[in-house]
Amino acid sequence: MLQALLSRFGYLAVLALLAGAGLGVPIPEEATQLGAGALAHQGYLRLPLVIAVCWLGIVLGDLAFFLLARRHGERVLRSRPVARVLTPARRDRLEAHLARHAFLSVAVARHTSGLRLAAFALAATHGVRLRTFALADGLSALLSVPLVVSVGYLFAHHLGTAERGVRRVELAVLGAVLLAAAVAVWLRRRRARAAA
């Protein structure tokens, strides 16, 4: 059904589905991106434009949710999709991480399907600047969107297998980003101790 919707309405469907997913509509982003990549492989859509539209849809949806959470604060945090995953312990950890590493928290949350909405809502209600949020989210999506769409393009005949592979690759990319961030923090602390 998703493939039929994408082939009939093309880029507009991709944009709307991904923006809706960013607002909490239960549409899997990866499936939409994989389907759009497969349609590009079949010649219905152009690959570079698909990548751009997917990125735009994701970022617009995330920004809209961020602004909604900023405006409605605790009401969004108490909403079912957010409250279901935002236990008091998780909330405390996310708040502490956001206070110290807002940019990194948003970038990592972009790739954490279960906690994405909760982390974005907390970022909005805890004073993360719109510019910081947009930059972290946009750059993070810039890493994953071309990868996911390209997997859909290259493995159009094996989409079920490709979707599972994308999750593994995304987790590997997330692990690499976290490792790089940990090394950067460690080096900064080491230099600060050496200078003191």
Tags for this model:
196 residues, mainly alpha, 9 helices
Explain the layout of strands and helices.
Blueprint: H1 2-22, H2 29-41, H3 47-77, H4 80-83, H5 88-100, H6 102-109, H7 116-125, H8 130-154, H9 159-195
Overview of the structural elements:
This protein is mainly α. The mean pLDDT is 87. The relative contact order is 0.13. The chain has one domain (2-195). The protein contains 9 helices and no strands.
Overview in brief:
By secondary structure, the protein is an all-alpha fold. It contains nine helices and no strands. Helix 1 (2-22) crosses helix 2, helix 2 crosses helix 8 (130-154) and helix 6 runs antiparallel to helix 7 (116-125).
What is the overall shape?
globular
Rg over CA atoms: 18 Å
Report the helical percentage: over 70%
End-to-end distance: 62 Å
Largest sheet: none
Q: Total helix count?
A: 9
